[in-house]
Design goal:
The complex is a heterodimer of chains A (about 500) and B (about 220).
Chain A lengths: L3 H48 L2 E4 L2 E4 L7 H4 L6 E5 L5 E4 L19 E6 L5 E9 L2 E2 L22 E8 L1 H48 L17 H56 L5 H30 L7 E4 H15 L5 E7 L3 E4 L1 H18 L5 E9 L2 E9 L31 H12 L2 E7 L3 E8 L10 E7 L5
Parallel strand pairs in A: 1-7, 10-12
Antiparallel strand pairs in A: 1-2, 3-4, 3-8, 5-6, 6-8, 9-11, 10-16, 12-13, 13-15, 14-15
Helix pairs in contact in A: 1-3, 4-5, 5-8, 6-7, 7-8
Chain B lengths: L1 E5 L3 H13 L3 E5 L2 H10 L4 E4 L8 H10 L5 E6 L4 H9 L4 E4 L4 H15 L6 E4 L2 E4 L4 E4 L2 E3 L3 H12 L4 E3 H8 L10 H13 L8 E4 L3 E4 L5
Parallel strand pairs in B: 1-2, 1-3, 3-4, 4-5
Antiparallel strand pairs in B: 6-7, 7-8, 8-9, 10-12, 11-12
The chains are: A alpha+beta (about 500), B alpha/beta (about 220).
Chain lengths: ~500, ~220
C-alpha cells in the first residue's frame, strides 16, 4: 500500500530538486554569460589599448614598442599574445611570446570585436579577440620613442587587423568554482528541504494518523465513542465528521441488531424451557415408574413447543431473507378477492372466541403480485386480528378498488392500544403486552407484513380509529380494471363460513 | 412444602408443577400476575416461583406488592430476562433468588429446597431427630441406620415435621403446606397420612417419634414431651 506521507515526501522533494536544478542551471548560465562578457570586455579594452600603439605617420605605420619587449607579452609564464596584419595580409607586428608563429585570424566585421576560444601556442586554453581598426595619425612627429616599422606602402594606410589572445584558465576556474558552489548549495538546500518537508508532512498528517489510530481502537463494544474536531484542520474535520456520522449509524444498527438477537433468544427461552422441563420430568417419571403415566401428553406438548420454535425460526428467516433482498418475487395474475375469502375462512374458523366478523370483497379482483408472499401478508393480518380482538369484539375486512389500485383494510377491536404504540407496531418482537402467551404469536407478524409489502410495492398504513378500532390498510398496485367489480358483502357472526 | 408457580406458559407451568410434585412439594399454579398475587396473598406458600413477563400484572409488580403486604413467602424469579440489571432489580425488589430460562430442573429444585430451609431457619440439609435422620438433599430417611422408603407425600409430611422439631404442628398447617389444589382435603386425609408415616418410621417396636396432641396437632420429637 502506498503511504500518503511517503508520497508527499517524494513528490515535494522531487519538486524541490527540479526547482533547484532549473534554478541552478539558470544561475550558472547567467553567471557564465556575465563573467564571459566581463572577460571579453576586459579583453576588448586590452586590444584597443594595443591598437592605440599603432600610429600612422604620413605614409608609414609605426608601432610604438616595435622591437621592445612588452612585459605582459614577453614573460615566460602565462604570456599574452597579439599580432597585427595589414589589410593585404602581411604581418605588421607580433608579440615576442609568439616567436615566429602566427595567431589564427578569424573573420569579423569592421568596428565590432570578434571573440573565439582557441588553444594558445603554449598549449593553454585561451580566448582571442579580433579587431579591425584604422591606425590613428601620429600627433607627435618628434616622438623619440617611435620608430619606423614599415616602409612607405600605399596599402599600409588601409585597415589593420589585430588578434589579441590571452589565457582563459582563470575564467574557467572561476566558472568551475561557481558551478561547484551552485551544486553544493543545491545539494545542501535539497537535504535541508527534505528534512523540513519531512517534518511538515509529518506534522500535517499527524491528525490523520491520530484519527486512524483512534479508528483502529474502536470495537463493537465502544461504538458510542466520537472523535474530537476542535483542533483538526478543515479537511480532517470533514473526515472526522463523516466518521462520527458513520459511527452513529453503526451504533444504531448494532443496537438494533443486538436488541433483535436478544429478543429472538428471549423468544426461544420459554419453549426451550418447556421442552427441557418436560423431558427432565418425563425422564424422572420413567425412572420411577418405568413408563410415564401419560406419555401422549409429553409428545403432544413437546410437539407444540417444537412447532412454536419452528414458527419463530421460519418467521425470523423469512424476515431476514426479505430484508436482505434475497427472497425471489414471482409475480403472477390471480384473483385477490378469492384469496382473501379463502384465507379468511381458515382464520375465522380458528378463532376460539365469540367474534363478530364482516367480510366485503368484489366478486373478482385480479392483481399482478406474488401469491405466496401476499398470502403470508394476509394470513398474518387475519391471524393477528383474530388473536388480539377481545371477546365480543369485531373483525372487519374490506377489499375494494380505488382507481387503478386495490385497497384492503383489516380492522379489529383492540383493548389498551394507544396512538403512541403505532410508532412501534412494525418493530420486530414488539407487543403491547410483554407476556409471550398469545398462542403462536411471537411479535414478528407485522414486521413480516411490512417487509413483504415493501418487496411487492404495497403501501401499508396503520391507524387507530374511533371506538378502539385498529386498522391496517394495504394499497396494492397494478390492478386489472376491466373485470367486473360487482361487490358483494358478507356479514358473518360467530365464525360462520361463506 | 407448598409452592406457587406463577407462569403464563401453560406447558412450562404444567411440567414445572409436575417436577415439583415428583419430589413431594404441593404445587398451585397461576397463569397471570393478578391471579398469582391474589393466591400469594390468600394462601400460605413456602416458596413462590415467579415469572416476570406476565399478562395483566407483571412479575415485578407482583413481587413489590407482595413485599408491601409483608408476605413471608420466599420468591424465586424464573424468567427469560438475563440482563444483570434485571437480576439486580429483581433481587433488590425483594426476590430471594433468580434463575434464568432455560434452566436445569435439578438446579431449580435445589434452589427451591434452599429457600425452604431458609424459610425454616435450617442451614444443613441433614436433619436429626433422635435416631432419625432426614437428608433433604438426597431425600433419604433413615432410622437407626436403616433406610425407610417413603412416598413423596409421606416424605413431604415428615420433612415438614422435621423442619419444626419439638413444635406443635396443627392439622390446618399440614393441610396448608402439604396439600395443593389438586387434592380435595377431606376430614381424615391428614390423619391417614400421619398414620401411614408413623407406621413406617415408628414400626418394628421402635420408640415413637410422632406424638399426637389430641384436638391440637402433632409433635415430632425423640422423647415424649
Amino acid at each position: 500500500m502506498i503511504s500518503m506521507r511517503s508520497q508527499l515526501l517524494v513528490r515535494l522533494s522531487g519538486g524541490l530538486a527540479c526547482a533547484l536544478l532549473v534554478g541552478g542551471m539558470a544561475a550558472h548560465l547567467i553567471s557564465r554569460r556575465v563573467l564571459l562578457a566581463q572577460f571579453d570586455s576586459a579583453q576588448t579594452k586590452a586590444a584597443r589599448a594595443l591598437t592605440a600603439l599603432v600610429e600612422e605617420d604620413g605614409e608609414k605605420l609605426e608601432f610604438e614598442y616595435a622591437g621592445e619587449p612588452i612585459p605582459a607579452f614577453g614573460s615566460e609564464e602565462a604570456p599574452e599574445y597579439f599580432q597585427f596584419w595589414y589589410a593585404d595580409g602581411r604581418v605588421l607586428e607580433r608579440s615576442v611570446s609568439l616567436g615566429s608563429g602566427d595567431l589564427p585570424k578569424k573573420g569579423g566585421s569592421e568596428g565590432e570585436p570578434h571573440f573565439w576560444d582557441l588553444s594558445l601556442p603554449d598549449g593553454r586554453a585561451g580566448r582571442a579577440t579580433r579587431l579591425e581598426f584604422a591606425p590613428r595619425p601620429d600627433d607627435d612627429d618628434n616622438s623619440l620613442a617611435s620608430s619606423v616599422i614599415a616602409k612607405a606602402d600605399p596599402s599600409a594606410t588601409g585597415m589593420l587587423t589585430l588578434v589579441y589572445a590571452r589565457s582563459r584558465e582563470e575564467l574557467d576556474r572561476t566558472l568551475l568554482y561557481l558551478l561547484l558552489t551552485l551544486v553544493g548549495a543545491a545539494a545542501a538546500i535539497l537535504i535541508l528541504g527534505r528534512l523540513v518537508i519531512r517534518g511538515v508532512v509529518a506534522r500535517s498528517t499527524e491528525p490523520l494518523a491520530r484519527l486512524a489510530h483512534g479508528v483502529e481502537r474502536i470495537g463493537p463494544t465502544d461504538l458510542g465513542r466520537r472523535f474530537e474536531m476542535d483542533e483538526s484542520p478543515e479537511e480532517i474535520a470533514a473526515l472526522t465528521r463523516c466518521l462520527n456520522n458513520l459511527l452513529t449509524r453503526l451504533e444504531a444498527a448494532f443496537i438494533r441488531e443486538r436488541l433483535f438477537a436478544t429478543a429472538a433468544a428471549h423468544e426461544l427461552r420459554t419453549p426451550l424451557s418447556e421442552l427441557r422441563t418436560m423431558l427432565e420430568v418425563g425422564l424422572k417419571e420413567f425412572e420411577q415408574n418405568d413408563l410415564p403415566s401419560s406419555p401422549v401428553s409429553y409428545f403432544r406438548d413437546g410437539l407444540a413447543s417444537t412447532c412454536q420454535m419452528e414458527n419463530l425460526a421460519e418467521t425470523l428467516l423469512a424476515l431476514v431473507r426479505s430484508e436482505s433482498g434475497i427472497l425471489p418475487v414471482l409475480r403472477t395474475r390471480f384473483d385477490l378477492a378469492r384469496l382473501v375469502r379463502e384465507l379468511w375462512d381458515v382464520h375465522s374458523t380458528k378463532a376460539a372466541r365469540e367474534l363478530r366478523t364482516r367480510l366485503q370483497t368484489p366478486d373478482c379482483a385480479q392483481v399482478d403480485s406474488d401469491r405466496t408472499l401476499l398470502s403470508a401478508i394476509l394470513s398474518n393480518l387475519f391471524s393477528n386480528a383474530v388473536a388480539y380482538t377481545p371477546e365480543g369484539g369485531e373483525v372487519s375486512i374490506c377489499l375494494a378498488r380505488v382507481g387503478e389500485r386495490l385497497r384492503l383494510t383489516v380492522t379489529n377491536s383492540v383493548a389498551g392500544l394507544f396512538g403512541v404504540d403505532l410508532d412501534h407496531i412494525f418493530e420486530p418482537f414488539w407487543r403491547k403486552d410483554p407476556a409471550r402467551t398469545v398462542g403462536m404469536h411471537c411479535g414478528l407478524g407485522l414486521s413480516l407484513v411490512k417487509a413483504y409489502a415493501t418487496l411487492l410495492g404495497i403501501e401499508v398504513r396503520v391507524d387507530l380509529c374511533a371506538n378502539n378500532r385498529f386498522e391496517v390498510e394495504l394499497v396494492i398496485p397494478d390492478v386489472e380494471r376491466d373485470r367486473a367489480d360487482t361487490g358483494r358483502e358478507l356479514t358473518r357472526g360467530n365464525h360462520i363460513g361463506d | 412444602m407448598k409452592i406457587l408457580v406463577v407462569e403464563d406458559s401453560d406447558r412450562l407451568a404444567k411440567y414445572l408443577a409436575k417436577g415439583l410434585r415428583q419430589v413431594g412439594y404441593a404445587v398451585d399454579r397461576s397463569a397471570d400476575g393478578e391471579d398469582g398475587l391474589w393466591r400469594a396473598q390468600s394462601f400460605e406458600y413456602d416458596v413462590i416461583v415467579l415469572d416476570l413477563m406476565l399478562p395483566k400484572l407483571d412479575g415485578m409488580s407482583v413481587l413489590r406488592r407482595l413485599r408491601e403486604s409483608e408476605s413471608r413467602a420466599h420468591v424465586l424469579i424464573l424468567t427469560a430476562k438475563d440482563d444483570v440489571k434485571d437480576r439486580v432489580q429483581g433481587l433488590t425488589q425483594g426476590a430471594d433468588d433468580y434463575l434464568v430460562k432455560p434452566f436445569d430442573l435439578g438446579e431449580l429444585l435445589a434452589r427451591v429446597q434452599a429457600l425452604v430451609r431458609r424459610r425454616y431457619s435450617v442451614k444443613s440439609p441433614l436433619l436429626r431427630i433422635g435416631d432419625l435422620t432426614l437428608d433433604m438433599q438426597k431425600r433419604e430417611v433413615r432410622r437407626g441406620g436403616v433406610s425407610i422408603d417413603l412416598r413423596p407425600r409421606e416424605y413431604a409430611l415428615l420433612e415438614y415435621f422435621a423442619l419444626r422439631p419439638g413444635e406443635l404442628v396443627k392439622r390446618s398447617e399440614i393441610e396448608a403446606h402439604i396439600y395443593d389444589e389438586t387434592v380435595e382435603p377431606k376430614s381424615n386425609v391428614v390423619e391417614a397420612a400421619v398414620y401411614s408415616l408413623r407406621k413406617k418410621i415408628d414400626g418394628s417396636g421402635l420408640p415413637p417419634l410422632i406424638h399426637t396432641r389430641r384436638g391440637m396437632g402433632y409433635v415430632l420429637c425423640a422423647a415424649e414431651p
